[in-house]
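hiii so um. not sure if this is the right channel but i have a protein structure encoded as tokens and i wanna go backwards to a sequence. like what aa goes where. can anyone help
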């Protein structure tokens, strides 16, 4: 694939499950333009645990049947874990608390030269490309 690479954060997956028009429209356009839109296991876990906690069985079905099949998968490698640990240490030295999931997503994005698609500013302190598809 010659297109760009995007890694979707948990809140973007939630937007897709909710059917947020700007996010679903942008995802469709990115996929049609031959870009890679990726899901990784840490985000999958974070989405699924939230849906299970909320006893949202219909949303679990939407996630598994309508969202996941349209995304590519990217596995973590040892390099991602090492970089995530470095990101954590840097943030900790600066007095910031960061989610382990966000750190792992950011490390994958760095490795792949990908943009993190997010709907908050959790990645602002990390040296990664970011986009907000809600805008």
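sure thing!! here u go:
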């Amino acid at each position: 694939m010659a297109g760009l690479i995007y890694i979707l954060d948990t809140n973007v997956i939630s937007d897709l499950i909710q059917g947020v028009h700007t996010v679903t429209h942008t995802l469709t356009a990115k996929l049609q333009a031959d870009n890679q839109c990726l899901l990784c296991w840490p985000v999958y876990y974070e989405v699924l645990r939230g849906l299970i906690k909320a006893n949202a069985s219909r949303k679990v079905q939407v996630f598994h049947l309508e969202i996941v099949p349209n995304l590519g998968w990217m596995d973590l490698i040892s390099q991602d874990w090492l970089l995530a640990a470095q990101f954590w240490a840097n943030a900790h030295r600066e007095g910031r608390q960061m989610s382990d999931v966000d750190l792992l997503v950011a490390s994958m994005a760095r490795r792949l030269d990908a943009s993190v698609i997010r709907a908050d500013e959790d990645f602002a302190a990390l040296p990664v490309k970011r986009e907000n598809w809600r805008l």
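oh and The beta strands are 5-8, 36-40, 72-74, 115-117, 129-131.
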